[in-house]
Amino acid sequence: MEQSQSNVHHRNDTVEQVILVVDDEPEICDYVETVAEEMGIAAVTSVTAKQFMQLYGTTRPAGIVMDIVMPDMDGIELVQWLGEQGHGIPVLLMSGYTPTYADSLVDIAKGCGVRISGRLTKPFAIDDLEAALTALVRPQVSDAQPGTGASDT
Fold first, then answer.
1. How far apart, in whole angstroms, are the C-alpha atoms of residue 17 and residue 79?
2. Region for 40 from its dihedrals, namely left if φ exceeds 0, alpha if ψ lies in -120 to 50, beta otherwise
3. Which domains does the chain have, with CATH numbers?
4. Cβ neighbours of residue 65 under 8 Å, at least 6 residues apart?
5. Which GO terms describe its biological process (predicted)?
6. At how many degrees (to 10) do helices 126-137 and 26-38 cross?
7. Which of 92, 88, 3 has the alpha carbon at shortest distance from 44?
8. pLDDT in tens, 31-70
9. 8 A C-beta contact, residue 62 and residue 19
C-alpha cells in the first residue's frame, strides 16, 4: 500500500485509518502492527525517532503509538517535536519503565499542545492494546461533552 498525505488510506474500495508506530524494539512494532491490522487499522512502523520524523511528514497518521524510552531520542524530545508540528494528532504512549515517567510526559505533552490518548506499560495484553488503539483512532465525541468533567488523559 502506498503512503498518502492524508490520515486515511484506501484499499480495495474500503477506507482504512493509518497509525504511525515508533519503538526501538522491532518486535513491539510488529506486535502493534499485527494487532492494528487485525482491527482494520493500517500501521506504518519505525525503529528510530529520526525515521519516525521522516515518516510523519509523508504519512499524516490518524494516531501515533510511541515508546517513550529510545536510544536516539527520548519521549520528551519527541513530544516536544510533535508539539512544534502543531497538527494535534493523538498519541498513545508505551513504556517498560515506571508509570511515573509516563505521567511526567503527559504533563509535558499538555504544555506542548500534544494530546495523549492513553498509556500502556510493557508488557501489555492484547485486549489492552486493542482498547488503546480504538481510543486512539476512534475517540468517542460523546465522552468529552463540555461540562461533564471528561478530559483527555
1. 22
2. left
3. 8-133 (3.40.50.2300)
4. 19, 20, 21, 22, 23, 32, 43, 91, 92, 94, 133, 136
5. phosphorelay signal transduction system
6. 70
7. 3
8. 999 999 999 999 999 999 999 999 998 988 999 999 999 9
9. yes
Q: Is 16 helix (H, G, I), strand (E, B) or coil?
A: strand
Amino acid at 45: T
Mean residue pLDDT of the chain comes to 83
Determine the longest span between alpha carbons in the chain, in angstroms: 44
Cα–Cα dist 49/109, whole Å: 17
- 59's enclosing H/E stretch is helix 49-59
Residue with cell 502492527: 33
Contacts of 53 (CB under 8 A, 6+ apart): 81
